[in-house]
Amino acid sequence: MLKQQGFILNFTLLFVAIMLLIVVVTTNSTVAVLQSARNEVKSEQAFYAADMGVECARFLESKYNAFDTTSPQATYTCGIGASFQAGKDPVDPQLSCSSAKYTFTVDGLGNGACTDVEVDVTPQSVNLGGTPATLCSVTVYSNGKSSCTDTTGVVERTRWETIK
Predict the structure, then answer these.
(1) Residue 100: helix, strand or coil by DSSP?
(2) Distance (Å, rounded) from C-alpha 75 to C-alpha 151?
(3) Which of 4, 92, 145, 149 is buried deepest, with most CB atoms within 10 A?
(4) Between β-strands 74-76 and 84-86, what pairing exists: parallel, antiparallel or unpaired?
(5) String of b and e for 72-88 (b: at least 16 CB within 10 Å)?
């Protein structure tokens, strides 16, 4: 009879140990999946913030020709975030394009994301029908962040595009 009680105790301990192992593995797996889902959401927030920065610059260039270095300096904004100056002051009538760099931040997005935008204007020499000309190339770099207030666990995504 004593041998049977020892067997039941050993069997019970083994069963509890196996169940505990299953619970620990399942919990770790669940935590990893939840963290991955959180990171995916942050990644999407950062990407869409970066995309918004590019779209803002594209809108300002197409509607107002904001990054034309032969136009006088003016103030622009994307509706939210800080305003910035673009254009030249003073304008050099001899130049058809000159190098310029403009930076601005778009923040205040509903999800706490923001983006730092840099617009580079670069003169490009081209040949138009055998005649040399200088055209402006406008490239936008937008660095989206999943959060501009929380400094831990921030995910960043960068988008760039030549818009002109």
Answers:
(1) strand
(2) 30
(3) 145
(4) antiparallel
(5) eeeebebeebeebebbb
Task: Give how far Cα 47 sits from Cα of 115, 123, 140, Å.
Answer: 9, 29, 15
Name the residue type at position 93: P
Task: Write out pLDDT tens, residues 60-118.
Answer: 999 998 998 888 889 998 877 678 888 887 777 667 788 889 999 888 777 889 999 99
Lookup: tokens for 140: 């936008």
Number of CB atoms found within 10 A of residue 70's CB: 16
Q: Which tokens in the block code for residue 80? A: 């939210």
CA distances from 64 to 79, 89, 102, 116 (A): 14, 17, 15, 21
Q: Is the pTM of this model over 0.85?
A: no
Q: Under a CB-based contact definition with an 8 Å cutoff, are residues 43 and 157 in contact? A: yes
